[in-house]
Sequence to fold (745 residues):
Amino acid sequence: MSEVQSSAPAESRFDRISNKILSLRGASYIVGAVGIFALLAATTVTLSINEQLIVALICIAVFFIVGRHKSRRTQVFLEVLSALVSLRYLTWRLTETLDFDTWIQGGLGVTLLLAELYALYMLFLSYFQTISPLHRAPLPLSPNPDDWPTVDIFIPTYDESLGIVRLTVLGALGIDWPPDKVNVYILDDGRREEFARFAEECGARYIARPDNAHAKAGNLNYAIKHTTGDHILILDCDHIPTRAFLQIAMGWMVDDPKIALMQTPHHFYSPDPFQRNLAVGYRTPPEGNLFYGVIQDGNDFWDATFFCGSCAILRRKAIEEIGGFATETVTEDAHTALRMQRKGWSTAYLRIPLASGLATERLVTHIGQRMRWARGMIQIFRVDNPMMGPGLKLGQRLCYLSAMTSFFFAIPRVIFLASPLAFLFFNQNIIAASPIAVLAYAIPHMFHSIATAAKVNKGWRYSFWSEVYETVMALFLVRVTIVTLLFPSRGKFNVTEKGGVLEHEEFDLGATYPNIIFACIMALGLLRGGYALIFQHLDIISERAYALNCIWSVISLIILLAAVAVGRETKQIRQSHRIEAHIPVTVYDYEGNSSHGITEDVSMGGVAIHMPWRDVTPDQPVQVVVHTILDGEEVNLPATMIRSARGKAVFTWSITNIQVEAAVVRFVFGRADAWLQWNNYEDDRPLRSLWSLILSIKALFRKKGQMIAQSRPKNKPIALPVERREPTTSQGGQKQEGKISRAAS
Fold:
């Protein structure tokens, strides 16, 4: 085993961090109470329009001056400033902009106001959640592996193909942990004979229950009764772990017996539909990065980390104390964490991706997955509301409340998009305000909300993209939201399909037709407004109203078209996704000639290597030797060259047995540092982000078969000299093939 530091310093560090968290939480409550009082006092000050406009300009100037500094205090100050401006806006909306001349106009105005109240409520809760992200670091384990706990690794599966599941199983079998203290279990709810044979072949254990009651939660509960490990690592069947998963993530579980859950990020090595289908997708952070990069880290400060169903270690004692995984809702993960925290258990989050899986390949699959998440979180809101019941602290209640009510976004999103149509089609002015008042109150509120979010989210989520993500799903989720609120027991667990291919480019009408209809209606409203401005004789008030609503409808139309563009599915025929990786290797031909190189990308299908080896015949068998990633131990991977040109050679793996396949899995997915560049994106710049959103609409007009530019920056590998030497041999005189070290990188 690799050498690990002594646990004594870890204990003192743990105590210091715990005390710091407790003191910061108390200070946050005090500052928050004082801040709320100050904000309420500030929002009641009466100003004229001109005075309010001056205050708005001063606040914007303060933002730019203070925002130049990067610190936690700066972020908190900007959040407080944003809250102040937003509360001024809310006061103005409540007191001066509602018009009840007709019941229709009054009803529409109140509807829009309620949507805005929801948005402000979510804004303030997000500021609360991210007040002080914990940025927890790993704690080292005891230097004596005999002191390490026993671990059961659960890999639940139902109808996924063996080709997907076997990679996760082989990755789990290669995790660096004492062999007598870890067991890998395939939990097969499909009861398939080929899975049982594979488990026997690779050395994993196989569990199949007699029924499928309660879906994934029932599968996990059945496995708990048939295993005995102190801790349980749960991996979705497509989430391939790095070899150092347990050594990096287990330290906190060992040092603090009150921690029931250690959650790590869900990272995906394949592109999601937004990245794959939009021209700017690869330059934009994935949708899930905001949650795992910002929100979960903020939740950790409040001891409110959520269990996300995979890539997490759970303490068996805590699971057994609550009677097993929750089965009342279709999101058994978050509900299970809530139940553990009600019993007094703590949870933790480590913002280091230690596994990677497959993103949803198709937009319709992505929408279906989010519909299940929304249904499950709303079910928890109804049947086990975090604001009621015993056992939770205020911070935990608010973090859970934010997570659950965030899935109510569909109805407010549709209201925001459709609101300008009330005036353009029916002449119902649902915001009774002059343009100068809008400039003084509404524009500053929008500016500070967007600009402050850009400071908080940095490179985890770009401005305006949340609107696109929500709009893609909104019209599908409206019905789910209403039905689940009224009938929380309805709905069932659905497995998200992974690993598919798309032979031909196509437009997914089934996933986009609601937004296509919506966009057509919005375009008609815009034409109606343009006609009125150009050809009708309007007074100055009507002219301004038409102009404002036309601008609003243009913004709505851009968002709708971007959401529709995601449905233009690009061709995806690769069974093995390429992963960018720059790893030093040495390649030997059959005569023993060698050449050093650096990989450009790797996959389960093969590897591309930058190397100055030119006179090589295609279809030539070679050995790719990896030196550095396995703690100094060389691993030989048999391969076949398929082409070589301009200093780059491409090889396919020659996988002849399960040992070689396991070695390739560890090389491609098991490196401890494999996913550390998961947030290799520039910090958010709102204007640039808005422009990229507009450019994304180009996907609608892409010619059939036209490739999308993938301009994500890559590091250029360095050139290495040619070197000839004898092939490396083991002590027995034979080349090492598929050998795997059990030491952490």
Remarks:
- Confidence is low (pLDDT under 50) at residues 1-11, 709-745.
